[in-house]
Amino acid sequence: MTATERSAEVLAAATSAFAESGYAATKTDDIARRAGVSQPYVIRLFGTKQQLFLAVLDQVCERIEEIFRAGATMAEPDASPKDRLDALGQHFGEHFLTDHDLPRVFLQGIAAASEPAIGANIREHYGQLYDLAKELTGATIYEVRRFFATGMLLIDLTAMGFTDVTADCPPWAAEILTNLSEEGI
């Protein structure tokens, strides 16, 4: 296996571990075990646990950017800003929210924002994603803010395991999911 392939395996293992346990509780030993490598090898590849977490967070945010860009191509050339946002949102739901580790890592990045390097990273990414959504859709500040608010609500629900109205879904989550569905989200 090449160093690039091994690095990708470590990033995948780290994504899973950070999604499950968060930044503070995740140990590089656990990541190494999941990736089938030694803990010193993980450190040799990424330096510190924080640098590894930042690499994972970069990868997650780059994935959101890719999804937004692909979603923008789904809208008709003369589509309204609302229709363009809807296309981004649909693509986001189909390609980001369906991978439960990605939303959880994104939330872990926000939760660990009190760490200076992590806070700077997640704020930078969040701002870039916000600006990208405005650029790709031509939507107003209000429309983009509402899009992000709904997206964060969906990330929260997904992280808690509520993606569909089911028998074990609590009434409050079922109500929110039903309402979102009625709005075409």
TrEMBL record:
One of its GO terms (molecular function) is DNA-binding transcription factor activity. Coiled coil: none annotated. Residues 27-46 bind DNA. InterPro entries: Homeodomain-like_sf, HTH-type_TetR-like_transc_reg, HTH_TetR. PROSITE patterns: HTH_TETR_2. SUPFAM superfamilies: Homeodomain-like. Residues 4-64 form the HTH tetR-type domain. Keywords: DNA-binding, Transcription, Transcription regulation. It holds the Pfam family TetR_N. This is TetR family transcriptional regulator. It comes from Nocardia terrae.
